[in-house]
Every structure is written in C-alpha cells, then in structure tokens.
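Final report, Chapter 2: Outcomes

The project's central promise was a pipeline that accepts a single protein chain and returns its three-dimensional structure in a standardized token representation, suitable for archiving and comparison. That pipeline is now operational. To close this chapter, we reproduce one record exactly as it appears in the project archive, with the input sequence first and the structure output second.
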Amino acid sequence: MNKINDTQLKQLIEAAIFVNEQPLSVDKMRSTILSDLEVSTRQLNKAIKELELDYAPRGVKLIKVASGYRFQSDSGLGQLLSKLWQETVPKYSRAMLETLALIAYKQPITRGEIEDIRGVAVSSHIVRSLTERKWIKVVGHKEVPGRPALLATTNIFLDYFSLSSLNELPSADEFTANIEAALAASQLDELPDADESSASGDAPLAQQAPNTQGELLSNDNENKASIH
C-alpha cells in the first residue's frame, strides 16, 4: 500500500468529488481512488472535515447528502443563479406537495392511508410523477386484504433536498408555512389534479404531514448549480 500525506489526500478527495457525476460516498472512495493507498478512517474523516470548513464561507459548499458528498452552490444564491438557465422551473401542485410530505413523514405508507389523511383521492399522475423522479419507491406490501403497496422516499429524494437523512426534515410546525411559500413563489394553481376529486374539493393542509425541505422550487435552481 502506498502512503499519501494530508495535503495530497485533501486534493485527491476534492478532485474526485468535483469530477464525479453523482454524490461520492466514503465507501466508493475506498473502493476506487483510495484502493491502493494507506489511509486511516481518522485521516479520511479529517480531510473531509477540513474541506467542508474550507468551502464553508464560499459560494460553493461541500455538502453531505444521503448518497455521499457533493459540491453545490450556496442555497441563498439559488434565485440569482437561476438566471443562467432559460428553462422553466418545474411547478408542483398542492396535492403533489402534500402527498410527498405524507410519504416522507409517515413512511412506509399506502396510497389508501394517504387518501384517508388528505380526505381526497390520490391522483395516479402524482404517484407516477414522484416515482419517475425516483423520489419515492415501493418498499413492500401491507398485510391486509389487497396487499396495497407501501411507499417510501429514496436516497435520490434526500439528495435532491440536500439531506443526509430523514432526521434532517423540518419540523411539523414549518409545514404549512413552507407549503404556502412554495405555492406563492411558483404562482401555482391550487386546484386538485385532474383525476383527484372529492365532494368538498381539495382538503386543507394536513397538520400531521410536514413539508419536506419546504422550498421546493429554489431547490431546482440549487440542484442545477451542483458541481460534478
């Protein structure tokens, strides 16, 4: 095994995270760039921590998400950086935001349980859209008649919102304010989706279902500014 000093190790890790297309985990570092090097866990953790501190005051940060480490722009710069891209930021309906929040906070949860909480049918389009974005997945089936699918969030969901674990989700008290802010920022139509209906229209925000990261729209700009 070859040795590497602390300065070289920091440079190697920094470059590897920079050029990797996806967040880079410690395990992948070990199996690739560090496979022929003698690097202790303490030395590796020290190098990563120093890099995090080095980038802390800058416009680009070293962030730990569920899948590993990545560089991305400071969250406060999202709106200004969005001017670099011409495409329209994706818009999310209230129904989609509430459904995603329920899955994030009540997982694993069935579609029927989501409908019971929200008081309206869950649009197939919503579940399909969240699945296609790889934000949710089926993790099993509930042992009740019909064995409905149990839905849960993915690491890609956590990565998108710059979270390393579900424990970093905001508190329930932030839910309503965050949802309203996201809707107002995107000037969303608050009508339910085409195939979602109920006798009384769309249900009010479920108090027991806090929002995920809250500022969904600014995260689209922030993720575009991630550096690979």
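Archive annotation: The longest helix spans residues 41-55.
This record, like all others produced under the grant, will remain available to the consortium after the project formally closes.
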